[in-house]
Design brief:
Structural class: alpha/beta
Bound molecules: 5'-O-[(R)-(carboxyoxy)(hydroxy)phosphoryl]adenosine, zinc ion
CATH topology of the largest domain: Nucleotidyltransferase, domain 5
Largest sheet: 7 strands, mixed
Number of helices: 11
CATH class of the largest domain: Alpha Beta
Strand content: 15-25%
Order of helices and strands: EEEHHEHEHEEEEEHHHHEHEHH
Shape: globular
Strand order of the largest sheet: 5-4-1-2-3-7-6
Number of domains: 2
Distance between the termini: 28 Å
Length: about 350
Amino acid sequence: MILLAFETSCDETSVAVARDGKVLSNVVSSQVRLHAEYGGVVPELAAREHLKNLQPVARAALQEAGVTAAELDAVAATQGPGLPTALLVGFKAAQAMAFALEKPFVGVNHHEAHLYSPWISGRPATADFGAFRPNVSLIVSGGHTMLVLVEGELKHRVLGGTIDDAAGECFDKTGKLMNLPYPAGPEIDRLAEQGNPAAFDFPRPLLHDAGDDFSFSGLKTSVRYFLRDHPELLGDRQQICDLCASVQAAIIEVLVKKTIRAAKREQVRCVTASGGVTCNRALRAELERACQRHGFVLRLADRTLCTDNAAMIAILAERKLLAGLPAPAPDEEIKPGWSLA
Ligand code: KG4
Ligand code: ZN
């Protein structure tokens, strides 16, 4: 089965081609530079940029895969959650293409697709999911932070999520307080390497709460007040590195400890992680260490697949088609607020 998939839920225009669990191409055009000027994603700009980029990205994906549109068996797209105008571009393009080719169309949940990205690896990338189910999956990005119990094929249960800011948002907003460019996550990652994570003691919100929910806005506020009272720290490079390392350590401790606690409670053998924040080197290292200590197999999404991409959309769409899930009605619409059950 050959699938073409579109992902335009936020600021990445991505198109992928997959055949029988293999990713033949995964072209991603990131808009991050465009939005950097505004300090965050501007929905209207994102949608216009998707409109501009979708055709060349789709052509490149087909060409790289060596596949023509006539050979496609199905077309898929992210249906939600995401920015409404951004979602519309990829979703409607995919729907129109499926209609014109008289092939099935599959709309998928973006968060559910993230559950699949840790299982896509190698060159050519192949999905080998299923080896370690059930697993507890951490999805952590600029828009979402959640823990999901993956019980089996297309079967999952959300254990917890953020009640305010996402972890990536916390990286970005605290970075802004330190005058770092948007998105600050990668910059904090880099500067933290030269800093002392114990230099400043920031709160670890909800760390000792028995539930699986997260909260990061209090941490951001605590950094804001701390810098209001100590503005001189921002004039010293080493202090900035120490601040980055300390903020990063607080975020990571919460993410790692809560993930391990959920994995123990749910008695799974495997932990997985994906989403943009999973690019963070210290988070990857801490998850490795913790999983080793507690005897869990860890599957981290490849760095290229941590951030939003259409490969994960294609792989999930294929699983849905193979499972014989009913095709959606032709007049299906986007679901910007579609939360995972
Ligand atoms: O998955 P993604 O590309 O987009 C969504 O938000 O859906 O994630 C982007 C987020 C941003 O908040 C960015 O700062 C964060 O991921 N991020 C990182 C790193 N790379 C990206 N955060 C910490 N360390 C990194 N190396
Ligand atoms: Zn995402």
